[in-house]
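Teaching assistant's notes for section 4

Start the section by putting this record on the projector. Ask students to predict, before seeing the second block, whether KilA-N domain-containing protein will look compact or extended. Collect guesses on the board.
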Amino acid sequence: MSGSNSFSLTPKRWIESTNAVGIISKTGRYGGTFAHKDITFEFATWLSAEFKFYLIKEFQRLKDDENNRLNLEWSLQRTISKINYHIHTDAIKESLIPKEITRQQAGFVYANEADLLNVALFGITAKEWRDGNPSRTGNIRDYATLEQLVVLSNMESINALLIEQGLSQSERLLQLNRVAIMQMKSLIESKAIKRLK
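Reveal the predicted structure now:
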């Protein structure tokens, strides 16, 4: 019967009778049957359940490796964002925090500047995000996409420069929002970023 794997038909005869594409059969010393990998995998999985199992397990392992690599890239971008945050806070400390204030007052200035970036990129403050997501732990940045973290990292450096130039917070917010829009559009349309996903 042709439906069972006990059916016998030589590769050469099968190629000739079906005008098969993607498979070649040669005789002689260096001969053999050669096929496109998709045909080979299909034939091997039909022939051996054990091979099919190993093929599926290997595919799952490769997907897990890919996911781990993408998570690593996300962590790397989160780390870069944290490093830039120090550059950002140093600029705030030197330019925006008046002398002789309490640590709590200084904390308000830092939080206010962090929210400036949040509003420019995400459109909401940290408190608005927490109020809208009571079941989630962490903060808005912990749930950011890879693209958003790249832009956030860039915005921290740009804001540090804008602070040093003496721009008001409202002027900086407008400029940072324009930067966020431009960079997000560029990253989302980037073919290189699409290949990473």
